[in-house]
């Protein structure tokens, strides 16, 4: 950036001809209008400015050694003599730092189209500073600085809240909590591929973000739902990281892939290509559902990467003794009553960590005093009753006693795995449609109410 207000500048054509010189520059050179060949040779940059694809990106900085103006117009000097004069300390030489910037191609005044002369080169003198040293107010203005500071503050608050939630997830003195905490603390100190396995809603995203920012705080990061990422979508949504890796050979990046076990095969193939292209620069943090990893195996390179450093988040039912410490850390300034703590310990928490944090946030908003009671918890939790162990119904009517099976209750409903049940039901529907259509995929897709391409994708996943 040019910090000086001096208007010492000149324009040079692509063939090396000086097109224009400002009056201030003429005064600095010590000439009236005509620029002699030695001076012209000194202020014209190297031909590298016209080369396409050069690393300078259209900007060069050069130290000028301009000889003194000749005493008479007849005095001429070759370019070799000019360079020799510039390197001779005894010669009268005017020195300065110049910046050269490549501009757009020249346009013909009559046709308003670009001429064949190529781009113009702007040369200028002045006091220059690096972009990093220029105050933000000069770049963005006062309003831009205030908005940027506000955005930075919001990002800092979000990361602090996310880190606090992750630390509360690690709290506890049970063996399961201590083992999880030791694994996460080591992952925060190293940069390698990570896999986080646990039940749905276990807080894996909070841990993944915390481990990334602790081990590589300035690294580019993109978080994706891998179950939706085929090859094309992955290329588009991961571009902030992938583009940096392609443009700069020293850049590193991280992809956090939620539900990695459900990622389409072509998306996994694209990930494999990237891992082979940037084996040490691209890091993957995969989040796997412990209930679906066996039914959705990953392709070989991704499976090996996920085995490098696995972190397993235990079920909350295994950490019942830690719930008091975990929930107390999520509260603002209130405390739980003893009845409420007993209820929190007995509740099975099917939604895991996400259900727990949502319940604590709800209780914080509902409570008005210093204590959180049973009535401040969500309805599903405060109305929970432990399941009865009685498996038979005993009916006494006068002197007659009847023993029989206990009638089913809505509270008895339970599935081993919702994803596995839905996948099995979906496979049965596809099989019935294919049978009804005599193997015609287009007809089977019409009977299922989906597109043919989607049916083909489903069939490839089932095979």
TrEMBL record:
<feature type="domain" description="Sigma-54 factor interaction">
    <location>
        <begin position="170"/>
        <end position="365"/>
    </location>
</feature>
<dbReference type="Pfam" id="PF02954">
    <property type="entry name" value="HTH_8"/>
</dbReference>
<dbReference type="InterPro" id="IPR058031">
    <property type="entry name" value="AAA_lid_NorR"/>
</dbReference>
<keyword id="KW-0805">Transcription regulation</keyword>
<dbReference type="Pfam" id="PF14532">
    <property type="entry name" value="Sigma54_activ_2"/>
</dbReference>
<dbReference type="InterPro" id="IPR002078">
    <property type="entry name" value="Sigma_54_int"/>
</dbReference>
<protein>
    <submittedName>
        <fullName>Sigma-54 dependent transcriptional regulator/response regulator</fullName>
    </submittedName>
</protein>
<dbReference type="Pfam" id="PF25601">
    <property type="entry name" value="AAA_lid_14"/>
</dbReference>
<feature type="compositionally biased region" description="Low complexity">
    <location>
        <begin position="75"/>
        <end position="87"/>
    </location>
</feature>
<dbReference type="InterPro" id="IPR009057">
    <property type="entry name" value="Homeodomain-like_sf"/>
</dbReference>
<feature type="region of interest" description="Disordered">
    <location>
        <begin position="66"/>
        <end position="94"/>
    </location>
</feature>
<dbReference type="GO" id="GO:0005524">
    <property type="term" value="F:ATP binding"/>
</dbReference>
<dbReference type="InterPro" id="IPR000014">
    <property type="entry name" value="PAS"/>
</dbReference>
<dbReference type="GO" id="GO:0043565">
    <property type="term" value="F:sequence-specific DNA binding"/>
</dbReference>
<keyword id="KW-0804">Transcription</keyword>
<keyword id="KW-0067">ATP-binding</keyword>
<keyword id="KW-0547">Nucleotide-binding</keyword>
<dbReference type="InterPro" id="IPR027417">
    <property type="entry name" value="P-loop_NTPase"/>
</dbReference>
<feature type="domain" description="PAS">
    <location>
        <begin position="1"/>
        <end position="34"/>
    </location>
</feature>
<dbReference type="GO" id="GO:0006355">
    <property type="term" value="P:regulation of DNA-templated transcription"/>
</dbReference>
<dbReference type="InterPro" id="IPR002197">
    <property type="entry name" value="HTH_Fis"/>
</dbReference>
């Amino acid at each position: 950036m040019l910090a000086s207000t001096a208007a010492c500048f000149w324009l040079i054509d692509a063939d090396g001809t000086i097109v224009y010189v400002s009056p201030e520059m003429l005064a600095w050179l010590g000439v009236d209008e005509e620029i002699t060949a030695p001076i012209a040779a000194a202020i014209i940059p190297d031909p590298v400015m016209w080369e396409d694809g050069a690393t300078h990106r259209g900007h060069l900085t050069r130290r000028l050694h301009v000889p003194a103006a000749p005493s008479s117009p007849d005095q001429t000097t070759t370019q070799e003599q000019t360079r020799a004069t510039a390197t001779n300390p005894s010669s009268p030489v005017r020195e300065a730092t110049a910046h050269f910037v490549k501009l757009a191609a020249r346009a013909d005044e009559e046709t308003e189209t670009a001429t064949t002369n190529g781009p113009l080169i702007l040369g200028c003198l002045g006091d220059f500073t690096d972009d990093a040293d220029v105050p933000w107010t000069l770049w963005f203005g006062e309003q831009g600085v205030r908005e940027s500071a506000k955005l930075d503050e919001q990002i800092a608050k979000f990361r602090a809240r996310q880190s606090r939630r992750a630390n509360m997830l690690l709290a506890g003195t049970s063996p399961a909590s201590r083992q999880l905490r030791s694994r996460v603390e080591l992952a925060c100190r190293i940069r390698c591929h990570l896999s986080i396995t646990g039940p749905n809603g276990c807080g894996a995203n909070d841990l993944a973000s915390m481990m990334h920012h602790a081990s590589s705080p300035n690294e580019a990061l993109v978080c994706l739902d891998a179950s939706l990422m085929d090859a094309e979508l992955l290329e588009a949504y991961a571009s902030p990281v992938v583009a940096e890796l392609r443009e700069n050979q020293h850049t590193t990046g991280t992809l956090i892939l939620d539900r990695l076990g459900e990622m389409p095969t072509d998306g996994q193939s694209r990930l494999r290509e990237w891992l082979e292209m940037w084996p040490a620069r691209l890091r993957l943090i995969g989040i796997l559902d412990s209930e679906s990893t066996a039914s959705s195996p990953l392709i070989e390179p991704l499976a090996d990467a996920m085995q490098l450093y696995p972190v397993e988040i235990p079920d909350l039912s295994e950490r019942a003794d830690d719930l008091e410490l975990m929930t107390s850390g999520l509260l603002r300034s209130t405390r739980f009553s003893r009845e409420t703590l007993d209820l929190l310990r007995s509740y099975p928490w099917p939604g895991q960590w996400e259900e727990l944090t949502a319940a604590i946030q709800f209780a914080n908003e509902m409570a008005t005093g210093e204590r959180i009671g049973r009535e401040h918890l969500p309805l599903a939790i405060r109305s929970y009753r432990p399941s009865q162990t009685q498996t038979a119904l005993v009916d006494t009517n006068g002197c007659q006693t009847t023993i029989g099976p206990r009638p089913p209750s809505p509270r008895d409903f339970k599935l081993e795995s919702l994803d596995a049940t839905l996948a099995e039901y979906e496979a049965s529907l596809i099989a019935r449609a294919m049978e009804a259509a005599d193997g015609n995929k287009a007809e089977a897709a019409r009977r299922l109410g989906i597109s043919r391409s989607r049916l083909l994708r489903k069939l490839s996943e089932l095979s």
